[in-house]
TrEMBL record:
Membrane protein topology class: Multi-pass membrane protein
GO cellular component annotations of the record: plasma membrane
PANTHER family on file: BLL4328 PROTEIN, OXIDOREDUCTASE CATD-RELATED
Organism: Microvirga flocculans
Primary localization: membrane
Coiled coil: none
Protein name: Putative oxidoreductase
Classification via InterPro entries: DoxX, DoxX-like_oxidoreductase
Domain of life: Bacteria
Length: 139
């Protein structure tokens, strides 16, 4: 049975990557464009800590969504979420359920997983590897 499930693992990983990226990008669009709704304090200045975070969330989320440069981008985004948690959430309470940091913790660890596993199926990283292998046979 495990071999039947193992065959689907790259696709399950890709679905996790895609859904995570879409949710992450939503945080960036909210901070940058006020969509789907403006953040509580209004949209932050672009060259502020929140503004830079928003750019990372949107651009990094898009790269993860496409599965392009997945490992290094996921490493940066995991770091961003760790910093966000310890700077903004943890000082309020040691409990993520009380400090609102649940999403930051989950994003951090999903991105960390992608650093080690890669993007899974349906990614531009994977297509690039296939193309490189195909061209190496032609030499």
């Amino acid at each position: 049975m495990s071999t039947a499930l193992d065959r689907w693992a790259p696709y399950a990983l890709a679905i996790l990557r895609i859904v995570t990226a879409l949710l992450f990008m939503e945080h960036g669009t909210q901070k940058l464009f006020g969509f789907p709704a403006p953040p509580q304090g209004g949209t932050p200045p672009l060259f502020s800590l929140f503004g830079i975070g928003a750019v990372l969330e949107l651009a990094g989320g898009l790269l993860v969504l496409l599965g392009l440069f997945t490992r290094p981008v996921a490493f940066v985004l995991a770091g961003e979420m760790a910093v966000a948690y310890w700077m903004f959430h943890a000082p309020q309470s040691p409990y993520p359920a009380l400090n609102g940091g649940d999403a930051a913790v989950l994003f951090c660890f999903v991105f960390l997983l992608l650093v080690f596993t890669g993007p899974g199926a349906w990614s531009l990283d994977r297509e690039e590897r296939r193309t490189e292998r195909r061209h190496s046979w032609e030499r």
